[in-house]
Amino acid sequence: MKSNFISRISKLLLLAPLLFSCSSSLDFDQVNDLKLKPVFVANLAYFDIPATQLINDGSAEPFVDVSEFNAFKDKFFRDNLVKAELNFEIENTIIRSFRIDLMLLDANDQILETDSYQVPAYSGTPNIIKFPTEVFENERLDLLKKTAKLGFVVTMDAGPPLDINSKGNLKFRSGATIYMEIE
Amino acid sequence: MRKGYLILLVIFQLSCFAQNKQVLYNFTSIPQSLLVNPGADVSYKFYFGIPILSGVSANLGSSSFSAYDLFANNGVDFNDKVRNIISNSSNKDKTQVNQQLEIFSGGFRIGGKESQSYISFGVYQEFDFLMYFPKDLAILAVDGNQNYIGKTFNLADLNLRAEVLSVFHVGFHKKLSEKLVLGGRAKIYSSGANATSTHNSGFIYTGQSVGTPNLYNQIISSNLELKTSGLNKFTKDEYEGSVPSDIARNTFFNGSLGLGLDAGITYYIKENLQFTASIVDIGFIKQSKDVETLTYKGTYSYKGANPNFDPVNKPEDVFDQFDKAIPRDTLYNKYTTWRPTKLYSSIQYSFGESRSDDQCNCKGSINRRYLNAIGGQMFAMTMPSEPYVAITAFYKRSIFEKLDLKATYTIDPYSNKNIGLGLSGTLGKLNMYLLVDNVLEYKDVSKANSLAFQFGFNFVFQDSED
Asked: InterPro entries, alphabetically (chain B) (predicted)?
């Protein structure tokens, strides 16, 4: 009898807060709608070549470099990257004109894509060119994701000879805008 | 990745328990009030708690958002809700969970019938979680850095600790005179799992300035450290077991050990004017079982690929440079964690003498009962950044001789209108209590920024009932 009473009282005590509590309807499944869409900007590649490194008798000459580029080895990055934009800017204060070819190479040194940028010879006036943004989406993005190396070919067109006293630099700056969607 | 977010969200959802037990404090008809003040004026011949049911408490608190803000079924896009919460939160906002479960407890008077010395003891299990809102990192995850050129993202925003432990304790309190009660409690902590990442610093910065060789100045300066104990083996691929039961076993039988102390005082300035103070959990745990410390320390300036058209001196791959500049290091050193120390104090004025029963005041001494008491309490707790402080006004009333009510009004970091209610009743030898705070929030618990409750059952034996 007594224990019955105790259990009734204790039930009442336990349930009391619930009796006068309410809750708005909550939908925890919304967690599945979570989609992060951060946009990052980052440097891609740069160089600054002084004229004195390009000593030349006046004929056309290519300079080649291949850099490792491991960003796409990361699976998380590869899987969640939905769009990329690359921006290029070249400043030339050397009295020769150049063509810069940027090659995206895969792990087997196969060329996936080549983008070419021309810059005229320096003639005493500011000589900075900002090239239109390269947008990588869909198939072009898939190719980009295979990139393991960046190949650069700087071709100096024929023109006045360069020696150790030649002035000026060829400056290349590039950045990437990276659109991610993480679910 | 997604799982991680989910866990994070669930923790947020659970969040919101400060450890302030303002309703229990100095509620001396409940033996468990000795756990918040070992010098509380509690007397008994002996008592024991009903195992598992003598003290069940949980506290959740989240200072900048509620479950409703995140999960309301109101048609607002979930991602917008997340953004709103991020923009309404600061890195001072915190999410706290504290849960305690008494496994068993008991106490007895030592010495003869006239003695006023008491022993109390028990074991309880505790879970503690505290995380500050990682505002800058949340912005980076949601927006990226594109629109934050020139902003320094602060890595110190990453600040959290979590622990599961069991506490074995023995306390002693003595009524030295009619005016003074002193008490202390020794504790052995056994920590089954601990994760601590509270001393991070560093930043992520993206800037742009003319005349530099790069499009952006990008610097990551990282001084990140996560210490864990008792968790390492669960992250291994070959682990095949049940995480909860393994943590439970470690918590009670194979934990990292520590020592702690509580101390408290009750002093009657006048017969009806009482002062109390206590300090709880001055203690440390030497984290020694299955310890692992992960660090990312270093500074890296990201410039991008840099062809030098020199076939002899090839530059290194920039991403390899990153790994070298900010390496992931794993250490296996023991470390010490300090328990969050709590400080309570109260002043209480009693009035309205009871004229009911006890026609004969057999003991002859001042055993006058007051029906009402009002007063104020203060609570403070150490935290990784700034201390948690709360103040409380309370009113206590004996409704019947064996039914006491306490109502509290508390201003704390989560709320400036936290009303708590507590009820302690004795039926025969059975003492039952139920304490609830933030009662106003119960009209819609999903919108509450903090909630706490505690209940329990004890058998208490007094002399007069012999």
From this structure: DUF5723
